[in-house]
Amino acid sequence: MQLTVATYNIHKGFTQLTRRMVIHELRERLRGLSADVMFLQEVQGSHRRNAHRYRDWPGKSQHEFIADSVWHEVAYGKNASYRDGHHGNALLSRFPIIKQENEDISAHVFESRGMLHCVLKPGPRMPELHCINVHLGLFERGRQWQVHTLVERIRATVPRSAPLIIAGDFNDWRHRANRALIEDLGVVEVFEQVEGRTARTYPSLMPMFRLDRIYSRGLDVVDARVHYAFPGTRLSDHAALAATFELALRNR
Fold first, then answer.
1. How far is C-alpha 207 from the geometric centre of its chain's CA atoms?
2. What is the per-residue pLDDT across 96-137, written as a single tens digit (0 to 9) for each?
3. CA 239 to CA 210: how far, in whole Å?
4. Which residues touch 41 (CB under 8 Å, ≥6 apart)?
5. Are strands 188-189 and 97-104 parallel, antiparallel or unpaired?
6. Residue 235, SS3?
7. How deeply is 125 buried, as exposed, middle or buried, from its count of CB atoms within 10 A (0-12, 13-18, 19+)?
8. Is 94 within 8 Å of 69 (Cβ atoms)?
C-alpha cells in the first residue's frame, strides 16, 4: 500500500514574526497536502491569553482543531508549559494509533524540546509503523545529545524489521545530525534519496537552511515534495515537506 506523510512546524498558528493568527487558513492548507500521517511541531495545546485576545481562536487545542474530521487519530506531546498554556509536537493519523509516548529531550532549561513516538496500525495485514516526531534544539551541543537519545530510543524500542519514519524540525543547519542518523540507524533522508540533497525549508520567505527532514527505514520512497509557500500567504516561518512511501504487506 502507499501512504503519504507530511511534516510542518506551524509556529503556534501564527505567521512569521507572530504578526497574524492564521490557524484557520493553516488547517485548510494542511488538508490540501492529502497526508495520511501529519507530523506537526510548535502546536499550541492551550493558550488562555490568545483565546481571550482573538475572537476566532479555536475552542479546542490546535491539533484537534486541525485534525477535525480528516484525521481521526491524534497524539500530542506537551514539551513546554507556561503561565498561559503549553505547546509541543502532535501527530495526526488516518490510521489507528495503538501506542504513544512523549519523551522530554530538553538539553537545558532555556529550551523545552521533545520527541513523540507513536506506533500506527495501517491495516489488518500491514506491519506496525513506528513514527517519531521531533523538534531538536537550537544549539549544537544540545542537538548532539538529543540525536544520541533518539538513536538509543530507536535501538531499544523499534525492531530492526519494523518500518520507521522520523520527521520534524531538526534545526540541523550543519548536517551533523543528518550524518549521525544515517550512519547509526541505517535510515535514508527522503529528499536525498529522490533529489540528491535535503530540502531548503527555512525561512519560508527565502529558504536558505535545510532544517526540516523526513527519514525512513523499511519503506520504499516513491516521491518527496517541498511546499515552499502556500498560495496567497506565508503561514509559518518554515516550509512544509511531504513524502509518499510504499509499505509492503507483512510476511506470514
1. 18
2. 999 999 999 999 888 899 999 999 999 998 999 999 999 999
3. 10
4. 7, 8, 9, 10, 89, 133, 135, 168, 169
5. unpaired
6. coil
7. exposed
8. no
Q: What is the rounded distance in angstroms from the CA atom of residue 134 to the CA atom of residue 116?
A: 7
pLDDT digit string (tens) for 149-196?
999 999 999 999 999 999 999 999 999 999 999 999 999 999 999 999
- Going by DSSP bridges, is the β-strand pair 164-169/188-189 parallel, antiparallel, or unpaired? unpaired
59: Cβ contacts below 8 Å, ≥ 6 apart: none
Measured between its terminal Cα atoms, the distance across the chain in Å is: 17
Q: What does the block give as the cell for 2?
A: 502507499
The length of the chain is 252
User: Which residue, among 12, 25, 39, 35, has the nearest Cα to 165 in the 3D structure?
Assistant: 39
Cα–Cα separations (whole angstroms), residue 228 to 37, 144, 152, 235, 250 = 19, 28, 33, 10, 36
Type of residue at 229: A
Q: In this structure, are residues 252 and 218 in contact, taking their beta carbons and an 8 Å threshold? A: no
pLDDT of residue 232: 46
What cell does 183 get? 550512519
Q: Which of 70, 88, 71 is nearest to 79 (CA)?
A: 88
- Name the DSSP class of 232: T
pTM greater than 0.70:
yes
Distance CA 248, CA 126 (A): 7
Which amino acid is present at 17? L
Sign of CA dihedral 49, 55, 60, 66: negative
How many of the other CB atoms lie within 10 Å of CB of 81? 13
